[in-house]
Design a protein that fits this description.
Distance between the termini: 41 Å
Oligomer: single chain
Structural class: alpha+beta
Bound molecules: iron/sulfur cluster
Helix content: 25-40%
Order of helices and strands: HHHHHEEE
Strand order of the largest sheet: 1-2-3
Shape: globular
Number of helices: 5
Number of strands: 3
Length: 88
């Protein structure tokens, strides 16, 4: 059977699986960092954003590599791993 993006998404696990809810649904950037890091290696990012629909649901928390508050992406202020100025 030919592997499609849809079938691979259906079999992939969210990289944030196992993280505590207070991290995935964090409102503060500092608390959300483990989930934001997980998003970087997550194979279901597109599915995550389509499913959560942050703007439509006024979502608070992490989805698809962004921290959302009231459905709007939060501008991150802390240095992120792998970015200039960040710590490894
Ligand atoms: S993209 Fe979504 S499912 Fe994947 S790690 Fe981030 S919050 Fe979790």
């Amino acid at each position: 059977m030919k592997q499609t993006a849809r079938t691979s998404t259906a079999t992939a696990s969210p990289a944030c699986a196992g993280l505590p809810a207070r991290t995935v649904f964090a409102e503060r950037e500092q608390d959300a960092l483990p989930a934001l890091r997980a998003c970087r290696r997550c194979l279901v990012r597109r599915w995550c954003e389509e499913t959560v629909a942050p703007a439509a649901s006024w979502f608070d928390g992490v989805s698809a590599g962004r921290l959302w508050r009231n459905g709007r992406p939060v501008t991150l202020r802390l240095p992120q791993e792998g970015q200039e100025g960040g710590e490894a």
